[in-house]
Amino acid sequence: MASTIDPYEILGVSRDAAADEIKKSYRKLARELHPDVNPDPESQERFKHVTAAYEVLSDPEKREMYDLGIDPRTGAAGGFGSNFGFSDFMDAFFGQQARGPRSRARRGQDALIRLTIELDEAMFGSERDITVDTAIVCGTCAGDGTGAGAQVVTCPMCRGHGEVQSVQRSFLGQVMTSRQCPQCQGFGTLNPNPCVECSGDGRVRTRRTLTVKIPAGIDTGTRIQLRGESEVGSGGGPAGDLYVEIVETPHPVFQRLGDDLHCNVSLPMTAAALGTTLTLETLNGPEELIIRAGTQSASVQVLKGHGVPHLRASGRGDLHVHIDVLTPTRLDERQEQLLRELAELRGEEHPELLVSDDGPGLLGRLRGAFGPK
After folding, report:
1. N or C: which end of the chain has fewer CB within 10 A?
2. Are 298 and 326 contacting, i.e. CB atoms less than 8 angstroms apart?
3. Of the residues 12, 31, 58, which one is the last residue of a structural domain?
C-alpha cells in the first residue's frame, strides 16, 4: 500500500478507532464494493484499496508502524531496521522469534498461464478472452472468515499476543524464548464459528473470464502482467498478479526472426531471365513484387516496413522475399530445340565450369555470414 494513501481515510475511521470499529467499517465497504456486486473497474479498484487498508489497520504491529510514519511493507523511513539490537541478537542466537499476533489477511499468490496466438495477432494486436480458475473474496463473510453475526475471540493460550514464552536453562543461565502460539498459529485470535461458505478461509473458488489485450509486436516469451487478477489471499487479503506468457505458433508461409519476416517465392527460369511483376499476398494484403530481368536464385528482395511492429518503439521490421529460380526438368521436343538454339546463340553449348568463393554462391554466402564485417 502506498504511503501517500491514508488507510484511516479509506476505511472512514478515526486514528483512535478500536479494532471492532475498523472491522465493522471494512465489512460494510467490502460488501458494497465486492466484484460480484459491483463489477465495474472503479469499484474493483476501490475494493483493492479497502482490502489493503484493512490489512494494515487490522494488524497491530503494522498499524503501529504506520502511525509512526513507517511503511508497513518495506520498513522505510525513520531508520527502521537500521540498528542491530538485542532482539536481533536473540534471533541470530536462538533462531527466528515470533513478533506478536499476525494478520489473517495474506496476499494471494501470483499465477502464470500460457496463451497461444497466431502471427497476425502478434503483428497487429488483438484482444483474447481467457478463463481462469481462481479464488475470490467470500461474498458471505466479506473475507474475514467468520459466520453470520460471529466474531473472533482472543486466544486463551497466548492472550492475544500470538506467541508464547518459555524459560530454558543453558550454560548462560536461564534464557527466555518466544515461539508462535500453537493454538492460534500466531493470529492471537480464534474463529470458533467459521463461515460455512468458505470454512473460515475468507475466499472461495470460482471460474472467471478475463480479457487480455495483446499489443502489436509481442513475441514468444513475452509476459503480460495483469495486476490483482490472480487469486485473493486468505482472510480477504489482496489478490496477486496474473502473468500471461505469449506463445506464437509458426506460420505456414512467413517465418519471423525478431521483427523481420521471411518468405520464399519460386519463379520459372524464363520469368527470372525476362523479368516480371507478381502479386504477393502479405499479412498487410496484396503487394506488387517486381522481378528484374536476370534475377538469380537465392537473391533476396526486401519490402521495407512490411514486417512486425516494434513492441517498444515506433516503426516496423521488413519483409525479406527469398527468390528460388526453378529449372525445368521435363521438356518436349520443341522446348528442347528452342533451348538448344538459345544456348547456341549465347555460345553456351559447352560451358566452362567456373569455381569462385565470391558472389551469391554457397561459399560467398558463408563468407558473408561468418567472415569479417
Report:
1. C
2. no
3. 58
What is the DSSP annotation of 294-338? TPPTT-EEEETT-SPBPTTSSSB--EEEEEEEEPPS---HHHHHH
Helix (H) / strand (E) element for 206: namely strand 203-214
**What is the sign, positive or negative, of the torsion defined by CA atoms of 127, 133, 135, 141?**
positive
Spell 111-143 as b/e; 16+ CB within 10 A means b. Answer: beeeeebebebbbeebeeeeebebbbbbbbbbb
Contact 55, 238 (CB under 8 A): yes
Report the alpha-carbon distance of residue 248 to residue 265 in Å, rounded.
Answer: 23
Q: Judge whether 76 lies within some domain.
A: no
pTM: 0.63
Q: Give me the residue label for grid cell 502471427.
A: 119
Cell 496466438 sits at which residue? 117
Reading the block at residue 186, the C-alpha cell is 500466531
Q: Count Cβ neighbours within 10 Å for each residue of 25-36 and write b for 16 or more, e otherwise.
A: bbbebbeebbbe
Q: Distance (Å, rounded) from C-alpha 12 to C-alpha 70?
A: 21
The answer to whether residue 1 is domain-embedded is yes
Q: Domain total for the chain?
A: 2
Q: Which domain holds residue 19?
A: 1-58
pLDDT, mean of each 10-residue run, the chain (373 residues) = 68 88 87 76 83 87 78 51 38 46 88 95 95 92 89 91 79 71 91 92 93 95 94 90 96 95 94 93 93 93 95 93 92 90 85 63 47 49
**pLDDT of 78-116, one tens digit each?**
333 333 333 434 443 444 444 568 888 889 999 999 999
Residue 336 lies inside a defined structural domain of this protein = yes
**DSSP structural state of residue 229:** -
Q: What is the largest CA-CA distance in the chain?
A: 113
* Residue 225 within any structural domain of the chain: no
Question: 249 with 123: CB under 8 angstroms?
Answer: no
Scanning the chain, the segments in alpha helix (DSSP H) are: 7-11, 19-33, 41-57, 60-67, 86-94, 119-124, 269-274, 333-345, 362-370
Are 116 and 214 in contact by the 8 Å Cβ rule? The answer is no
Residue 117 near residue 248, CB atoms below 8 Å: yes
DSSP 351: P
